[in-house]
Amino acid sequence: MDYIQQDQPPGVPPLPLTGERTLPDVPEENYWYRRHLVVYEWLAQRCRGLRVADLACGEGYGSDILAATAAEVIGVDANPEAHEHARLRYRRSNLRFERMLVEQFDTRRDAIVFLQTIEHVEKPQELLRRFAGIAPVSYISTPNRLTLAPPGAEKSENPWHIREYTVSEYRELLEPHFSQVEILGLHHARKLRAHEIAIRFGWDHVHRALRLTKPFYDRFTPAISTSDFRLDSTDLDGALDFIAVCHA
Q1: Other CB atoms closer than 10 Å to residue 153's CB: what's the count?
Q2: pTM, 2 dp
């Protein structure tokens, strides 16, 4: 089923879900939105007072969150519809949006934010060298292949992903370009952790047999919040996503 944003401010064109772009304001997408939002909120505290580039910023909500604490934020995306939406939807005196390929961005910044995109890049090494040359710290995230793809598969079925990484492969990609790399993992917490455990004990069979699937998830998914995720350095092999803190 196709979904599109609702109730946008006057003059702001709504964006459809594409299967890869994450959107706020779409209840069915709330899990993925909150999964990304929790990282942006964490980054907003680390980027306080800094000049930040949010590369591949998509719809723009993350750039807006960063701009609440940063000195200045540039949101960069090549997609014309996303750029136009973000430019009209999110307005702060210290926030602007530029339409270009991330490979073309060369403005010096205090921090680079590049979330859930490196897996789309054909030549990531060249891009990482560029990041190290224009910012003292880069925050780069990617999904964990071990929890995204089927067991033993080289990648998930996501057609937009060129390569997905285990934590050791991710380190091998990043460390040649930075003096220090710290990797954190995003995990389920609270009700998402309880749901994860319930699935292990057969919840999927129960809700289908009782025909509760749609009514349950129509309530459960919109209720997910950022507090239902945790970010730390434990059990990286079991993490949902890797968030790398890379110092030039």
Answers
A1: 12
A2: 0.95
* Residue 150 CA from chain centroid, whole number: 21
pLDDT per residue as tens digits for the range 75-120: 999 999 999 999 999 999 999 999 999 999 999 999 999 999 999 9
Q: How many helices (H) and strands (E) does the chain have?
A: 9, 8
| Burial class, 168, CB count within 10 angstroms (exposed 0-12 / middle 13-18 / buried 19+) | exposed
Tell whether the model's pLDDT for residue 1 goes beyond 80.
no
The string of pLDDT tens digits covering residues 17-49 is: 887 788 998 888 899 999 999 999 999 999 999
Contact 65, 40 (CB under 8 A): yes
Q: Give the whole-angstrom CA distance, residue 124 versus residue 215.
A: 42
For domain 27-188+231-247, which CATH number applies: 3.40.50.150, 3.40.630.30, 3.30.70.20, 3.40.50.970?
Answer: 3.40.50.150
Domain boundaries, the chain: 27-188+231-247
Query: Running DSSP on this structure, what letter comes out for residue 175?
Result: G
Instruction: Mention every residue, 6+ apart, whose C-beta is less than 8 A from residue 70.
Output: 44, 47, 48, 49, 50, 51, 52, 94
What single DSSP character describes residue 97? E
For residue 15, give the amino acid letter. Answer: L
Q: Which of 45, 92, 59 is nearest to 73 (CA)?
A: 92
